[in-house]
Amino acid sequence: MSLIESPRKVEDAIYDRLLPSGEGWTYELQPGQVLRIIDLEGNQAVDTLFYDADNLEDHYSAVATITGQHNLYLTTGTVLRAESGKALMRIVADTCGRHDTIGGACSAQSNGVRYDRSLEWMHNCRDTFMLQLSRYDDRLQKRDLAPNINFFMNVPVAPDGSLEFADGISAPGRYVELESLAHTLVLISNCPQLNNPCNAYNPTPIRLVIWEN
Amino acid sequence: MQIIWSKTLRPGGKWSGIVGRGRLLRFTALEPGANLSMLLYNAWNPCERYNMPDTLKAQHTAFLTMGNVLMSDNGRVMASIVADSLGWHDTISGYTSRQDIDQKYGVTRYQDQRNDWLRSGQENFAVELVRNGLTLRDLVPPVNLFAKVSVDDDGQLIFHENHCPQGGQVTLRTDMDLLLILSNTPNPLDPRSIYPSTSIQLDIFPANPIEPDDICVTHCPENQRAFENTWEYYALRNS
After folding, report:
1. Does A122 touch chain B (CB under 8 A)?
2. Residues A176-201 pLDDT 10s
3. Mean pLDDT over each residue of chain B, to the nearest integer
4. What is the Cα–Cα distance from B129 to B141, expressed in whole angstroms?
5. What is the nearest CA distance from A72 to chain B, expressed in angstroms?
6. What global pTM score does this model have?
7. B219, B67 contact by CB (below 8 A)
8. Helix (H, G, I), strand (E, B), or coil: what is residue B47?
């Protein structure tokens, strides 16, 4: 795993925002703009989806991204593709090392299945996604939610095909930086998961910084 | 056992239809090297559909075999794998695009090849999604029956070429009323330069009622809870 730092300075940014855990965020990036997601306290999962903002029906595709690069993990150089194959974003810097795209977002129902059915009341990423979609554009519906990216999550798959949510490999201040290759809508749920030790049961804020390239 | 219905999917073939719960779908590879891409939707509420991450993380696996279930994004069991001669079905490599097919096998068109032109997974899915009132926005990662794709420690994808022999067989039980969409098109990672000429037989039987010791229900506590969600859904739907 190679760690690539960014030359960009926060003081040159056009946007700088703290996003508490459990909250959502949408933003339309213009081609060439660069988004940095900073894991402020370490091992916070940032559940993220991308849409072609010129064709909202074309959502991020985990499988097009994975097969496009012949690799399961995301890091510097990865091109994030939509279901149509369109290149939406490219990871241009990464001080964490790798990111997951098959672990998906927590939901009330998946918390019930994975841990205990009595936990369905707990706040979860898919609720955040749906609330954000409802506020953003009424053309977007539940059907537009697809398997997402979990930045800073470590979900290793062994050669025998077993999968686990492992201890995180991120740390306070690590970040991933993405250049928009198209007019791209970003949808984030800063994960509120309290049942999975991956974040030490402590969901934390993230920082979102945007530059004109 | 009495076969309710049979279908042979030719190379490049596709099919969609509603299959009620309580059926067995037995898929047989009539030649080696098969790949059948499959999408599942709740027949009566298609915004509920097969969800790759929820399926994988609940069962701590990146592939599917006997004992595993296919879960929806609403935490329910849509279908369960009750028999499998192969041991591995791919969940992470997706489907082919027109560009993939043209690049790998050469450009084909109906005008030149008539019905021997080579179909892509994405176009097959598009036709069957639209036929059922859905669109490409409803496309999500499918299951690729008969294909094995593993990853090494660095995450590099490994396609196992000789995984599916002639006669390879997998049987799914429907646990919900499903809209099933099938595309008999190559796995995107299949390195062969000749379009796989592999027919797949689908035979549908009635399933026996689920017993308490069912191999898929008892596979793990997560599966038990997902089945409870499915049974609750049907208790509310039509008791």
Report:
1. no
2. 999 999 999 999 999 999 998 888 89
3. 97
4. 14
5. 5
6. 0.97
7. yes
8. coil
